[in-house]
Design a protein that fits this description.
Strand order of the largest sheet: 1-2-3
Oligomer: single chain
Bound molecules: adenosine-5'-tetraphosphate
Number of strands: 5
Largest sheet: 3 strands, parallel
């Protein structure tokens, strides 16, 4: 089976964007690929965080993966910091990574603005660690949301530089795998749904909470009264319908909006029911998993052993190529 790698940061509850852009895709792919899914705790410390809640957030993310349908018998699940080869390869790759490429990264520019009091080297070299995460497993594919495409491009560039510098083809250039809804906009309609912005629906929310958030979500700003006709093309909620609702429901909302036959609240109620159908089983399964931390810790430890073996095999070759083979 071809191998793929992906991960998410333990920085808080996963949201609908993480699910639609990444995790949902992982669940489908685990039957076709040799899948490695990581909890990337080393990435999460590039911004300020509370170390007292890190353990809980790591376990929470592992439970969410499983509640979403990741099966530990099919995919390897592990914590990034438990496989030391990631950071070893990162250092090596940093010696072939052009600064000019890192300077172009939009995520760094965004995060540097968001965390202007803490612009650290880790935040800047984040894409090099991400490249190491992928290349240490020689993964061919990386299922991610659209926001990560630039980081996969730089991973390919870094693999190319390494191969060119050492006259080898040892590190394969990975490709991104994007899903429908690879960029889910937030409730504000202005930016992508994001943990660090108050524009998300969390995978732990119940129907009431989802509807409360949808009530305040941005629609066509020109449609003020229910009797006004609206333009679905510029309505963020209609973009959500295209992802979450059936064709029949989409037509009902689109035609009804243009002719003022249906109000935004009714369209949002349809959306709420469809989103809740996705989130509710995840929320309930996660509540069950919350009772058994030992089971989760076992899965993560097993995953780390399996991943360390694969990563070490790659690193034996890398060390040899570098001339570290005494
Ligand atoms: N809005 C989104 N639409 C589609 N996919 C998304 N992803 C994130 N947001 C969206 C995808 O989710 C995966 C895991 O992401 P992460 O844990 O690395 O966090 P992130 O990308 O940094 O997510 P956030 O919410 O945007 O976190 P903050 O606010 O802390 O920066 C990735 O595959 C990502 O593409």
């Amino acid at each position: 089976m071809k191998r793929l790698f992906s991960g998410a940061q333990p920085t808080g509850t996963l949201h609908l964007g993480n699910y639609i852009g990444a995790i949902k895709n992982w669940v489908e792919l685990q039957n076709k690929y040799d899948c490695i899914f990581s909890i990337v705790d080393l990435h999460a410390i590039t911004i300020e965080y509370n170390q007292k809640s890190m353990r809980e957030k790591i376990l929470d993310l592992a439970k969410t993966y499983i509640a979403c349908g990741i099966e530990p018998d099919k995919a390897k699940l592990f914590i990034q910091s438990q496989v030391k080869q990631h950071t070893e390869l990162m250092w090596i790759l940093s010696t072939v990574t052009p600064l000019g490429e890192l300077n172009r990264m939009t995520q760094f520019k965004d995060k540097a603005k968001q965390h202007s009091h803490n612009i650290n080297l880790g935040l800047y070299s984040y894409p090099v660690l991400q490249a190491a995460d992928i290349l240490v497993y020689k993964a061919e594919f990386v299922p991610v949301g659209e926001d990560q495409i630039q980081h996969i491009e730089i991973t390919r560039e870094i693999a190319r530089k390494f191969n060119f510098r050492f006259n080898t083809d040892y590190l394969p250039e990975p490709k991104e795998l994007l899903s429908k809804g690879a960029r889910l906009m937030g409730l504000d309609g202005d930016s992508k749904m994001s943990k660090s912005k108050n524009n998300f629906i969390g995978l732990d929310e119940d129907e009431k909470s989802i509807m409360n958030k949808l009530r305040g979500a941005k629609t066509d700003p020109a449609r003020i009264k229910r009797t006004d006709s609206g333009n679905p093309k510029i309505c963020n909620m209609f973009a959500w319908h295209k992802i979450f609702s059936s064709e029949e429901e989409q037509n009902k909302c689109s035609d009804g909006c243009k002719t003022a036959q249906i109000g935004c609240v009714d369209c949002k109620k349809i959306l709420c029911a469809n989103i809740n159908k996705i989130i509710e089983p995840i929320r309930l399964k996660k509540q069950e998993l919350d009772k058994d931390n030992d089971y989760i810790i076992d899965i993560l430890k097993n995953g780390a052993v399996k991943c360390s073996n694969i990563a070490e095999e790659t690193m034996i070759g890398v060390r040899d190529i570098l001339g570290f083979n005494i």
